[in-house]
Amino acid sequence: MTTHHLDDRQPHAFWDNSFPPRLRIQPGDRVVFETLEASARQITRRSSHKAVAKLDFSLIHPLTGPVYVEGAEPGDALEVEVIRLKHKDWGWNAVIPGFGLLADDFSTPYLHHYKLGRKHCEFRRDIRIPFEPFCGVMGVAPREPGRINTIPPRENGGNIDIRHLTPGARVRFPVLAPGALFSCGDCHSAQGDGEVNGTGIESPMSVTLRFNLEKGTNIPELRFTTPPGQRLTVTDEGGYFVTTAHGPDLFKDAQQAVRYMIDYLAAEHRMTREQAYCLCGAAVDLKISEIVDAPNWIVSAYLPLAIFK
Predict the structure, then answer these.
(1) What is residue 18's three-state secondary structure?
(2) Which of 210, 212, 214, 276 is nearest to 243 (CA)?
(3) For the segment 31-87, what is each residue's pLDDT rounded down to a tens digit?
(4) Which residues pair with 224 in a beta bridge?
(5) Which residues does 94 contact at the CB level (< 8 Å), separation at least 6?
(6) Which of 107-111, 126-130, 155-159, 231-235 has the lowest mean pLDDT?
(7) What sign does the CA torsion over 122, 127, 128, 134 have?
(8) Distance of alpha carbon 243 from alpha carbon 294, whole angstroms
């Protein structure tokens, strides 16, 4: 087994199966990826709210890669074992006008900076979110020729934002092009299920992954396993405050459940609605609580109480 290293000086913000690989590896090898935060340095430690209003979305999701895995062919599965993610002391999330679950509710740009420690991400002195890192974007080259953007998730993986792909997880991607051509980036130090405001805690990181091949498995889309004996989140121990919303449209139910949560946070925890929306993106989990009793379904928003000191 060999360990390779890729720096963050040649990022690409697209998927393209003709884009040449930066590295060729053997199954079983590890790669350490240096990754930029999601804005590709459009937002820095010193940025103000104005930077959010000026974001160029063509630069969003600067990815490190691609990595060519020898022997990978269409029909195989690429197994990616998440070994380690190491932050670089700082992260951000934001209210981006026109983006996110409540795009029509928020028109003013807002940027929230986080101080990152060994175990926690500090929202403010009395609110600390556990450091539970993962790559927001991981994927292989698409089967179709041509260049496509990274914003939506796709058959090849991409902008998946699955918060449980933390160290110990094993992720399987369908190989769609020779060599798989794997890339990753958009690392989050924490995120609620749903990433409701459009951002997790966006952070530059060093990411260590191990690659293996499963020949001829023909999986249709991404699959993953979480490590045995590991809780899905360390915040479970403190209990949750939960808001719910019902109706025949799951998307609208999700919106309303988050609106109720924002109302609660603003009233009970002394923060602006923009701050509350950011906290929802970083820490609140959306769950489908009921989807069988037509004509109405229920979506619940779970706020972990352990984050409050």
Answers:
(1) coil
(2) 276
(3) 999 999 999 999 999 999 999 999 999 999 999 999 999 999 999 999 999 999 999
(4) 171
(5) 43, 52, 109, 110, 111, 112, 197, 198, 199, 278
(6) 231-235
(7) negative
(8) 20
282 SS3 class: helix
Q: How far apart are CA 257 and CA 110, in angstroms?
A: 21
Angle subtended at Cα 155 by Cα 152 and Cα 161, rounded to the nearest 5 degrees: 45
Give strand pairing partners of 244.
300
End-to-end CA, the chain: 44
* Residue 33, φ and ψ in degrees, nearest 5: -100, 125
Residue 94, sorted as left (phi over 0), alpha (psi -120 to 50) or beta, turns out to be beta
Total number of residues shown for the chain: 309
Alpha helices in the chain (DSSP H): 49-53, 250-268, 273-283
User: Hey, what long-range contacts does 286-290 have (CB within 8 A, 24 or more apart)?
Assistant: 286/192, 286/193, 286/194, 286/196, 286/254, 286/257, 286/258, 287/193, 288/250, 289/244
- Gyration radius of the chain's alpha carbons: 19
CA–CA dist 105, 93 (Å, integer): 17
Tokens of 183: 């890339």
